[in-house]
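Supplementary Methods S3. Input chains for the assembly prediction are listed below.
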Amino acid sequence: MGQAGQPNIIAMSGFIIFIILSLVITWFAARRTHNTKDFYAAGGSVTALQNGLALAGDYMSAASFLGIAGLVALSGFDGLIYSIGFLVGWPVVVCLIAEPLRNLGRYTFSDVVAFRLRQRPVRVASAAGSLAVIAFYLIAQMVGAGNLIRLLFGLDYEVAVAIVGVVMLAYVLFGGMIATTWVQIVKAVLLLSGATMLAVMVLAQFSFNPLALFAAAAEQYGPSVLAPGRLVSDPVDAISLGLALMFGTAGLPHILMRFYTVPDGRTARVSVAYATAIIGIFYLLTFVLGFGAMVLVGQTAIRGVDAGGNMAAPLLAEVVGGQAFLGFIAAVAFATILAVVAGLTLAGAAALSHDIYVNAFRHGHAPEKEQLLVARAATIVLALLSIGLGIAFKGQNVAYMVGLAFAIAASANFPALILSMFWKPFTTRGAQASILFGTVATLGLIWMSPAIQVDLLKHTTAYFPYRNPGLFTIPLSFIIGILVSWAAPEPSALAGFAKLEQQIHFGAADDAE
Amino acid sequence: MSDSASRLVTLSAARWRLSILLTAAMTLIYVGFILLVAFNKELLGTVLVPGLSVGILLGVLVIVAAWLLIMVYVRWTNANYDVAVAEIRRAHQEGR
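Predicted structure tokens for the full assembly:
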């Protein structure tokens, strides 16, 4: 077994090949990025299958591959709750969000919330909500990447995080959305084929019968690994986490942004079907990878390398396929993180530049050149910020951090998005109140939760007993948005609803009427 | 014009109903699963055949249910909604 923290030549070459490959993609894409529509939305020319792969690429982050495999390997069935929770948000996305979003907006989901409301206050609020989500998501990816690089290449954690930041900066800065989309596609294909190869090699040892593998796990570690109870013990916590995972997907800015890269609502809808098929297959594979690592690597060995179990999948690759395969899987894992970080940074740059700078400060009138310049400056700021935060949050649990990002997305973005599209009396003040409450309340409850108060600050009790606040903040955000809207009706927002409904169905093409 | 407007209202309501129905179905299925995880651990731990517990079977079924719900939505909208929208748009443009 390879020693953690020792440089691994084969793993390193695989990693470097991917970096070079993706930089070549970026270079080609850079030659095609001429304006802001190219930079944020890849010119609106992405096909359904391409966008499906890119959505899957954006969605399957470090938490999905490294995190879930590790959770299943160490605690059995309860790890699968994350696999399932990460998938069930997609029907909500396709039924309620994808097409209206495509038909109403241009680059960010704030375009939709602000459609019939007053632009400036709504955009500033929703950009703040988006940035909070992106920050938590980014921290989780940076922490995951830092640990992976430290374990596989023997670099210092801080150096590893800085490398991820700089490489990601290069992608986004020069290639924009076209490069990021292609990096996501390459990464989704690599991740899916890598995970499939790994699963097939595991199943080969159990005469291609997953049940034989699960039975072996139950025999070795007791039947309780096939039953719930090890991770999620409190019912309220289980439901709260479940709701955050389900409705968070429909509020993730970097996922929502992908619907602007396709030409119409139908393509948006079909691309979600492709994405869900790919993501679902991947999560079914995590069942095999997790239990495979439990049986073939062993819980003691996995814990020995990383207490959080995050290295279960790479270790499994080494056991079934040797050093070369470990190198391949490590490169895939790193590519996964890099691609997600690039997508997040791009969404953050869009919020800062398109929503705050262009629409709030310049009242929507800034020359193309200036917009592109500000977007690129915003990207640099975000890259530096994420390097700093990644280093500051060293040692945090990756899957848990992503769960919190989902809780913020579900509380801050999801209610405002739904109300603005489907509830006629919604007002500017209502949107502001709902988004700001969702952001601040979720962050506040996270701060008061046992994770920060007990685990991090070492206090004996927490002010708020639950680890994920979704069960409380999501309904409250809806209620506050509705109450504030009722308190002070907004005639112009009411009047704009007919045009919004028209455009949800026909798209912006009929605008000129 | 008023005819195409009222047809749009009907069509919009039909899609909205389907969306709500499918979203509610997914929520019920998933929350039901989570409630079993929270309150009936024994049931989920019951082993059906060696290696297959009720929990793992239901977990796979939740994923399959998500696929099926999306398929229902995409099929209905591709076959009915898109066609109807195109018709209304054509009628609308001819009427001008």
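Chain B has one domain: 2-95. Chain B has a mean pLDDT of 86.
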